[in-house]
Amino acid sequence: MTASITEQRAAVLAASSANSGSREVVLDVRNLKVYYSTPLGDVRAVDDVSFKVYQGEILGLVGESGCGKTTTAMAILRMVQPPGGIVGGEIMLDGIDLVPLGEAQLREVRWNTLALVPQGAMNSLNPVMRISAQIQEAIVTHEGKQDKRKLKERILNLFTLVGLPSRIYDMYPHELSGGMKQRVCIAMAIVLNPSLIIADEPTSALDVVVQRVVGQTLLDVKRRLGVSMILIGHDMGLQAQLVDRLAVMYAGHMVEVSPVATIFKEPLHPYTQLLIESIPSIKERKPLKLTEGLTHDLRNPPPGCIFQGRCPKVMDICKQVKPPLAEIKLDHQVACHLYD
Ligand SMILES: Nc1ncnc2c1ncn2[C@@H]1O[C@H](COP(=O)(O)OP(=O)(O)OP(=O)(O)O)[C@@H](O)[C@H]1O
Ligand SMILES: [Mg+2]
After folding, report:
1. 5 in a domain, yes or no?
2. Ligand nearest to the CA of 46
């Protein structure tokens, strides 16, 4: 008899914990390609992207609008909708490749292991259902009927974990502030004890103070549950405060991955350098640094490096040969011919 996905994962986890000494890899995305098919050709939204997420870390995923962050997240959850689809690569979660899994096996993995706080999550709460009922529904759908008192206790514990007052239990979404709604969404993501949470821009559309509160909530959740996270965002300042490692995407490609302190101190890719130089500073008034030019059409990527059209340091080789993402210093990967 074939072992269920849960049994297979347990076996892989037991084997990897026996192999002590190295950091445990929770997610290993290898050469992932996700294309959207259009009448004018395939949009290569994610084109040969590889990265890892380690146990108990927050990996930040940044890059300009349209570079493929949400598509990467949706692919990990196997939730890319047509006309999009995964056309290549592997998504190894706790040692099991999610790409070939069928719907029944995927249902087992989603929520139990993986959880999503989607982009614009707080606006997707059901406006006519009390907060408690929405969280109860998530639990009962996945775990079956439960004792009402225990269910309430569990939800109130969740509220404490994400810094929400118990009085919101019987409230409706419109009675809550944006920050509170976003923390309800984080509570819904952690309710089933996942091993990886993907939060897609959980702080955008919130004011700066509330952004910090929601950010702190994510940090608390990580510390107390030991869960791994992918935190997608634009705000480099917030990323600097929250994440352990930072992954930078440009036009469907991963261009740099490194521990966050290293990348801020010594960004290697010219795109990352521009991204960091463009962070406004209160101490020093300087003209905002803009990246000249436009991203190329994702249907017709040029031969060579994808950043060549906007790169201030472009060389001849960049127009011919695509630079691979290579580890050029310990734990610091970059895809750029400057470091060949
Ligand atoms: N249904 C679709 N059909 C065609 N192209 C699509 C479709 N959905 C997304 N794309 C394209 O895929 C690329 C990646 O989009 P994605 O939403 O992943 O970007 P993102 O990095 O999350 O951007 P943002 O920061 O704005 O959320 C974009 O160029 C987008 O235009
Ligand atoms: Mg997005």
Report:
1. no
2. 1
Answer yes or no: is 303 within a domain: yes
CA triple 84-86-87, angle to 5 deg: 110
Q: What is the pTM of this model?
A: 0.91
To which residue do tokens 């300087």 refer?
A: 286
Ligand 1 shell residues, CB under 6 Å = 36, 38, 43, 45, 63, 65-71, 83-84, 119, 298
Nearest CA to ligand 1 atom 3: 36
Judged on CB neighbours under 10 Å (0-12, 13-18, 19+), 28 is: middle
CA distance readout (Å), 63 to 233, 236, 271: 8, 10, 9
Give me the CATH number covering residue 334: 3.40.50.300
Report CA(132)–ligand 1 centroid distance (Å). 33
Q: How many domains does the chain have?
A: 1
Nearest atom within ligand 1 for CA of residue 38:
4
What percent of the chain stands above pLDDT 90? Answer: 72
Question: Using CA positions, which residue lies closest to atom 8 of ligand 1?
Answer: 36
β pairing state of 245-250 and 253-259: antiparallel
In whole angstroms, give the CA distance from residue 158 to residue 177. 18
Domain around 156:
24-339
**What is the rounded CA–CA span in Å between residue 285 and residue 280?**
8
Write the CB contacts of 264 (distance below 8 Å, at least 6 apart in sequence).
240, 276
- Measured distance CA(238)–CA(254) in Å, rounded: 20
On whether residue 272 sits in a domain, the answer given is: yes
Is residue 252 assigned to a domain? yes
In this predicted model, what pLDDT tens digit does every residue of 133-182 receive, in sequence order?
Answer: 999 998 998 888 999 999 999 999 999 999 999 999 999 999 999 999 99
Ligand 2 centroid from CA 118, angstroms: 9
Specify the residue with its C-alpha closest to ligand 1, atom 2.
Answer: 36
